[in-house]
Amino acid sequence: MLTMQPLGCLPNKAKTLSYEKCDKPLNNDTIFHNTLLQKAVQRLNSETTDSPFYILDLYGAFMSVINKQGGGDYSGIDKTGSAPLLKPCCTPTARKALCGSVDANGVKLYTLCENPNDSLFWDLYHPTQSGWQEISSTLKPSFDELMIHNNHLNIYPRRPSASVATT
């Protein structure tokens, strides 16, 4: 299972803070949710021995990337000092528009940043490819540990080998 990402750091919420800060009350709600998830998983694991449940900390991975790109203690501005870290690459220009929206004449209702690889977020909710790469790199040690642990438990049985008929 995955913990919930820091919802207060998603651009749709950080927008009200000029993309320079995470919404702390919403992040606190997210932390509360993740704590309840951890308790539920602990309870499930105490009730079963066959198939343990694991949690990958998506919240921690997001915050690690945000803090790293923000130069340590997240200040809201990327390390280069040029742009708010939480500002998405694709920004709607009309009230109800989304990235990719066009008006009746085919005119784009959004703007794009110059280089999406320099942005953590693609739109108001989703990381860019490079953002996901950073986040997944942060999760990789936990995932590797999970896979090693599962191999020791023999949770993933080996497939039977195919017999080859010879004549």
TrEMBL record:
The UniProt keyword set, sorted, is: Hydrolase, Lipid metabolism
Please name the GO terms that the record assigns under molecular function: hydrolase activity, acting on ester bonds
The GO annotation for biological process reads:
lipid metabolic process
Q: By its UniProt entry, which InterPro entries does this protein fall under?
A: GDSL, SGNH_hydro_sf
Superkingdom is Eukaryota
Protein family per UniProt? Belongs to the 'GDSL' lipolytic enzyme family.
Q: What is this protein called?
A: GDSL esterase/lipase
Q: What is the lineage of its organism?
A: Eukaryota, Viridiplantae, Streptophyta, Embryophyta, Tracheophyta
